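Anyone have tokens for Disabled homolog 2-interacting protein C-terminal domain-containing protein? Sequence:
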Amino acid sequence: MMLMAVEEELKKDHSDMQAVVDSKQKIIEAQLKERYAVTSQRNGLSPSNTSSLQITENGEFRNSGNC
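Reply: yep, here.
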């Protein structure tokens, strides 16, 4: 009888631990998805979308995106 009680307690503990692992796995997957999206946006820029430096009449440099 004592072994059955211990077994039930272990099953409950295992179930509780699995729930924690599952929730942490969801957090990790969400973080990876977010990181992948940011990296894809950063790597997805084509050279035509990036700003380039221009020389002003004063001989100073400025980004063409700031015109």
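Residues 1-63 form one domain.
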